[in-house]
Amino acid sequence: MKKINKYIVAITALLMMVSCYDGIDPITEVDSGPDLEDPTAELISPNGNVLIPFTDTEVDLDIEVLVEDDIEINNVTVTLDGNTIRTFDSFLDYRIFMEAFQYENLQLGSHTLVVDVTDTSGKTASDTLAFNLDNTYLPSVEGETFYIPFFEGLYTELISESDPIVIGTPDIVSGGYSGNTYEGATDSYLTFPIEGLFGEDTFSATFWYKINSTPDRAGILVVGNDIPENRNQGFRLFREGSATEQTIKANIGVGTAESWNDGGMIDVTAGDWVHVAFTVSATESKIYLNGELKNTTVLDSSIDWTGCTDITVGAGGETFSYWGHSSDLSLIDELKLFNKALTQAEIEDMQ
């Protein structure tokens, strides 16, 4: 009886196996045919020059390759500047291979990246990219002509890649709005040539500012000419007030007269960083604090640049040190100039 049961089970299993294959062709090996086509190799990434932040000197480079063959890929090699950095010889899909990886700590400069492929019949293909890794600063807003971040102990203006004339003993210290920051000192300031910085009758200046209210008044940004106590040309952005409150103000020279903008007040006791923006168009001057418009003044005429050659940063300097507007001991960070009058939306985006 036991033997009969065993026979029944075996016959049932055999019938089930036959039914599983009912209507399905058995798998048979298909001839892949002759290897007629060359393989293809493509560098997906990078696909051109690589730009990194101006504060960086190296990057972990993202690399992506795509390789294809009509029959079978044998091996893939990736080289950088003549050195092999990756080799692949095992593939899940032997006709298509895509791989992404990183090469760490690539330094600034010119580089050549190559991907080579060989198929099983010995045919080869390659793709080559010559590219430059650069950290040159690119302006973030249209019309930006000047930018000093005061990073790594440098006063360098990044768009022109030029350095100022340094008067006295200002400093670059830690604790800025973004990294390091300019710190003023008595009888100290920076000067830059203004050629190419401003529009014919428009400009803007923006920066982050933490006030040191001693002295109780100071020049911040000044452009003037060499006529003593003349305010009919250029502009003067300055502060005045007390130990607890300081007002950011501006004076604009319009040729035969001057225009005053009484600006807005900053609470010194709060100890906060404040974003200051000063814009001048052909008809108006405006002062913003933390993106909020504080005051608008209508100009009788457009700004006059006659005889103006330099901008002073951090003091009244040679042309506006009278009335006590000497050096500013405050902190100034992320200083930018523009050849246009910024909109409020553009200023708000800087917050």
TrEMBL record:
For this protein, the parts annotated as crossing the membrane are none
GO BP field? carbohydrate metabolic process
Keyword Acetylation among UniProt keywords: no
InterPro entries found in the cross-reference section: ConA-like_dom_sf (IPR013320), Ig-like_fold (IPR013783), LamG-like (IPR006558)
Keywords, alphabetical: Disulfide bond, Signal
Residues of the LamG-like jellyroll fold domain: 201-345
Q: In its keyword annotation, does this UniProt entry include ATP-binding?
A: no
What GO molecular function terms would the record report? hydrolase activity, hydrolyzing O-glycosyl compounds
Q: Which PROSITE patterns match?
A: PROKAR_LIPOPROTEIN
Segment forming the signal sequence: 1-22
Matches recorded under Pfam families: Laminin_G_3
Protein name from the UniProt record: LamG-like jellyroll fold domain-containing protein
Naturally occurring in which organism (per UniProt)? Winogradskyella psychrotolerans RS-3
